[in-house]
Fold this sequence. Notes:
The chain is built from 20 helices and ten strands. By secondary structure, it is an alpha/beta fold. The chain has two domains: about 5-160, Protocatechuate 4,5-dioxygenase, Chain A, CATH 1.10.700.10; about 175-455, Protocatechuate 4,5-dioxygenase, Chain B (3-Layer(aba) Sandwich), CATH 3.40.830.10. The protein has an eight-stranded mixed beta sheet, with helices on both faces. Strand 9 (about 430-440) and strand 10 form a beta hairpin. The longest helix has 21 residues, at about 140-160. The radius of gyration is 25 Å and the shape is elongated.
Amino acid sequence: MSLNKPYLDVPGTTIFDADQSRKGYWLNQFCMSLMKAENRARFKAGEDAYLAEWPMTHEQRAAVRARDLNWMMRTGGNIYFLSKLGATDGLSFQQMAGSMTGMTEQQYRDMMIAGGRSPEGNRVVGEGGDAQGPASQTAAWREWQEAEARNKLESAVESAQTAPETRAGSHAHVTAAVFSSHVPAIGAAIDMGKTEEPYWAPLFKGFERSKQWMKDHRPDVVFLVYNDHATSFDLGVIPTFAIGTAAEFEPADEGYGPRPVPTVVGHPELASHIAQSVIQQDFDLTIVNDLRVDHGLTVPMNLMFGSPAQWPVRVIPFHVNVVQYPVPSGQRCFALGQAIRRAIESYDEPLKVQIWGTGGMSHQLQGPRAGLINAEWDNRFLDRLIADPAELATMPHIEYVREAGSEGIELVMWLIARGAMSDVAGSGKPPRVAHRFFHVPASNTAVGHLILENQI
Length: 456
């Protein structure tokens, strides 16, 4: 994957990046659990039983049993988390560090007393320093690697004749952008079988064409921009931008019980790739390995896919804070969409990716002005989103609030999806409008919907 990772050429060093974080999530969470005395006691009383409570890989459990810190880091461990295991064993940080160097404890202490390890010869792999060469290994790790190598060889021989063809050098690409409101009452109408009732029927009719379009243009992955509604993020932590990098995302309980919708299957490899690429482009993302998704994500999925037993695509959830001010500007969101497109296009797998912007349109849920709808402004927003997104992105927050209601600020999330389209980068024609729909009301909200196809 075409990411700039210059630290891979630093000898004897494992940088804890987004890929490592995803890979080592449960290993590190296990280590964090040892900060409680009762958990340390249970672990010491029966290591295997305690480790079985954590959904780690077999290799991670083996590395823990061997107390091989280098091995644990290879499987995603971070030294700050792993130190909780060392502390449980009564080791100092110096003893833990020494165990990774191939030196005895006394040799390591003598080195530190003499001024520590010199960076000379240890800046780049292949120099002549004393930190070059393979990591120190326990016998258990060596045995595991030998067995793993045998298994990989056998598997490669077995699958060589049946491996599907791939297009060499092809990359992921953005095929379309989908925009939709994510009203919770829409989800309730679906769950309670009310979609044919007179109040709801016009709204769902407006998405019938969208469902057919989705069958004809199904992507491999949906990058879905939404806002968490005080579900996974409370006032203890409110990230401005957060990307879900887990393999699965369970529906959240928003107070009425979890919605009866399928578990969302993620794409952790692409998500981690996007996270690292976008952060390297100077956007600060929060990486979330444990996330429950609320109606902001699941309602648009229902509107586009219906109610299948399993979602037919993989999804990368991307949360934007539009609940507590300060919220990101439209300009920032528009630029972020461009960074996301660049990240996707640098991923070395020919995936078809759609970017969805959700939320809005005009609505206010609080105060004496609750119930505000501005249909004329909403439709003008859709016009500008199609034809002049760069200028639309300069709109100040106060206009959203005054004209579209306090919760109308959710529309800045649509600018992320619009910014990810090819014409914004100057590498494509203006997008084709595949479908446009607007409806009032859906509970307290105006519903907007738009499908734009990239014309490359």
